[in-house]
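subagent[fold] <- orchestrator: predict structure for attached chain, return tokens only, no commentary.
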Amino acid sequence: MKLKHILIGVGVLLALILVLKFTGVIGGEKTEKVTVEAAGNKKVVETVTASGKIQPETEVKLSSEVSGEVTELLVKEGDVVKKGQLLCKVRPDILQSGYERAVASYNSQKATVASTQQQLIQNQANFANASATYKRNVELYNKKVISASEFDAAKAAYLTAQANLASAKENVTGAKFGLEQSGANVKEAGANLARTTIYSPVDGVVSKLSIELGDRILGTSQMAGTEIMRISNLSSMEVNVDVNENDINRVNVGDSATIEVDAFADKKFKGIVTEIASSSTSVGTASTSVDQVTNFSVKVRILADSYSSVKGGAKDLPSPFRPGLSATVDIESESLTSLAVPIQAIFTGDKEKSPSQAATATNDQSQDKQKAKLNDKNIKQYVYLFDSKASTVKKAEVTTGIQDDQYIIVKTGLKAGQEIVSGPYSAIQNKLKDGLKVEKTTKDKLFSADGKN
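subagent[fold] -> orchestrator:
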């Protein structure tokens, strides 16, 4: 009797195992859990991301045109200065003596001009006397009153006086030119002497001070000398970023931008593109290679309205930003409202075949890699349509447009309202295939299940 019960129990267990195997619970493939989203119109803003440094929009670098010792330094870094304000002085001893020599030479030349003018007056009188004598001798010679030798002597005296007069006139002209030259030398010496006193050319803030009192500085008129200081207009700041050559054609002057500054981690500021370099940053460098990354400099002005209410930062400056702060800029290159799906829902024809490789990559890395692939429009792109009745998926080819961090525009191959598989990314890329039966779930359940596993 006991054996009979055992046999009945074993038979029931075998029947149960067969039923479970037939239904797929035992020995069958595991049903893939996916999240589903209906395609619909969304606003997609395509951005170009670049990083750089904050700098004043207007910055003047001051350097000396004369060499010498700094004898007076009347400002310090961070001081607000006005146009025409005295900043510093360089020892003027040598230039002062040069100026005094030039003035003395000028005065001497003035005396020379006066002397030559007096010589001219004397020669004019001599010429008048010689001319009158010559005319009388001409009449006397014609009347045979004087001899030929006497006439020749009078004529020679007349011609000599005429030549002396012409020479005196030229001497006066030459002396006047010499006076002008001396005057120019005085102006030059005065200008050189004035360069020992340095004034602010603009209103602003001393953003960088490169010298100390007593330092010796080098200055030349042909090239830039020792940099003394920088005066910046800190009320108008910009971010100078490097944009990759693959993105530069999508950036235009006037594009809006969102700016994140590392020193203000919890805030975002608004900006506008004001300038795009026509040449790459590598042009003009000593050495370039084929493998070198090509970037273009883009300047983005930080709009004052976006930081007017910011507390903290540089309290002693017109804006909260200090020159040199690191910033990341998202430039809004294009905006479109149209049919869109999540970026991770799109996959390409060259799907990765190894689930183990997909598992080793992080989700962020995978999405970045996928986003880069989607930029190449020559690669065919697909989505998985979800059949709610059969709980199966179907591969459908689509063409895409612009994208942001979350969504991508779908131009063809999909209609509004159609349900597509939106996750998980690893399943879309490596596990799903046409006709595969899946289980629809929510993101919360999916991620909670992954966490438990």
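orchestrator: received. Logging for downstream: Residues 324 and 389 are 60 Å apart (CA to CA). The mean pLDDT is 81.
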